[in-house]
Amino acid sequence: MRTETKIALVCFAAGTLLKYLLLTTEFISGLLFGLSLLFMIIGLLPENTYSKLKKQQMKKLSFFKRLVRLN
Question: Which of 3, 7, 11, 28 is the most exposed place for a label (fewest CB within 10 A)?
Answer without folding.
Answer: 3
